[in-house]
Please model this.
Amino acid sequence: MRGWIIDCHASDDDQGVVTWVRTADGTVRLQRPLRPSFYVSGKDLDSLEGDVRAYGAFPRMDRARTVLGGPEEDVLKVSVDGFQQMNRLARTVDRWGSYRDYSLYNVDLTPSQRFLTASRLFPFGLVEIDDGLRSLDSPLRLNYPLPPLRTMELNPRISRPFDPRPDDELVGIDVDGIPLEGDEEGMLRSLGEVVEERDPDIIMVKRGDKGRTAHVLERSRALGVDLNLGREEGVRSGTGKSYHSYGRTVYKPPSLKLKGRIHLDTASFMYSEGGIAGLVELSRLSGLPLQDLARLSPGTAISAMQSDRALRTGHLLRWKKNLPEDFKSVSRLMACDRGGFIHQPRPGIHEDVLEMDFSSMYPSIIARYNISPETLECGCCPQSASTVPGLGYRICGLKEGLLPAVLGPVVQRRRAFKAMARRDPARAEIHGQRSKLLKWILVTCFGYTGYRNARFGRIECHEAITAYGREIMLSTAEMAESMGFRVIHGIVDSLWMQGGGDADALAQEVHRMHGIPLEEEGRYLWIAFLPNLHNGAGALNRYFGLFEDGELKIRGIAARKRDCVGCVRDFQTRSLQSMSQAVSREDLDSMVPVVLENLRHWTDRIRDGEVSAEHLTLVRRASRSIGEYRQFNDGRAAAELMAAYGQEPQPGQSLAYILRDSSSKNAAGKVAIPEFWDGVYDRGRYTDMLVRSAEEILIPFGWDRVRIGDFIGCRKASTGIQSTIL
Model:
């Protein structure tokens, strides 16, 4: 019998692993015993062997590689009967060594990682089922077969759409867009019958991890309805948590995973970017089951790919990374501590501009120049001729590093999928979804080289990559200038140029010299580079422009931001659509009155109280818990109001609210939750938001905030619910 692995997780008894295989005729559940192990290196391992044996473990001496590219060394392999016992014993051993005498390895691997890696299997790989599972596939295969997956879209409608309480009733349940009939109990029974009859492999629920799927199961238990959404009873639940990422607080909601079926939250980042096809592609490459992968970040996926490669090549994975930055002199630090290439633009309107981008520049540099933690300043190549430009780091010339071995195939696959999408329009969407998620992997991999908590991060790798990037961009800009172009803007891996040079000739010469494709992003009829808000110099990533094919490209303005309020988004979107009718600077100038009238239309609606909650709702992230706010701002007011309704938001969790009166000193007066809004809003604040957003579009034409305010007859917004329109 043949089939595809669709899920893998620890068994309920904690003694093994359950694997779900989708065959042509249905789904097969296979349970295999698995005794997890971790490894210990350090002094006096003989004594430690007796100590862990007294705890019911099964230790034995072994040899393994504990350092990437390093030799084998003596380690103690400690095997236990269950995953929970392993976690407890690992923490105990670490404590015995005063958190410094022992180094522990392979502690934080998931049950699925342990089983799939040891068995040479991977999710959505074709397998043969006999006494065990035997792989018939390769994760690097491009045109791989897929199981006949059945999907079902579930939309529970709850009386309290915002953070429902256990006693909030279900007012409706839609399955694939068709509402189920009956009262709440009848709908739940009908849902169970539909799931049993259709036997879906994937159940998709928008915001399913934010309580909607769990609420369906809670209501079924409260009403005594036997409802099971998985192929066997029970669910695998995780807990929510807040964490910091790139300077902001992020909240990860509790996960809810089914047994034997895949529960997908269609509002998740990974699904919204890559769809099912992209998730399957990344699941095959990373070794992470799709149901787990859909709830993780691209950074976690690339880390899993690197871990999988290291494990399969006989390396152990250190539990608590302790790789400090190498000592550097002041002069070396000044040379190293730099970012990517920057050519600052001149603010204003520019016509006939060509944009060219390097394809996956930083990942391609990693693969081409063999940059990896173990290949920089390696001990086997003291006289290596390959050195990082400007920094002098030696790079190994004898063995391929871990990062190039992982990223090289990903770069090639993405290029292949993009080419396949062009050749095969019928499957262009599938290839596009795969390519898009691979892009996020490639984008993330560079940042993880400099991330101190990344398992395979090392700051010297980060420095080497940017050094190569600067060298490549500088030589490309010089080459472009010599071929008749004038560079007017450049940042990291993109160049904007004017002039009559030959773009194809430039791309060919750059590829010949550096081995990285330089591709034409498009030619603009016009592009507006916006000034920096603080000093008036050209902002690096705030612009909008019109390609020759009529497509608008927008970066850095309000309409592109996730937290943009609806009225501002609508105003900027409509204004830019009007401006897209212009094919020259003269045409653009004639569009300024159109934008101003569009602004007047919105400010009049704000003044007259004709704006709906949809266009007034702001969505922000809670930056901290309620007690940690130092000022009584909008965010704190919204958090207090949500807590009053029975749901205190965690740091990083989204807050949706409408501004009622900015001058109010109490939460209910200052903001309103959209579901309970009474129609009052702060007209001055919303008018000011619109004026600021109009300035973003019109500043290249000489219209700043003061001039715009004079035109529509309004002062700078103050506080209060009264309109500031004169």
About this structure: Residues 3 and 25 are 9 Å apart (CA to CA).
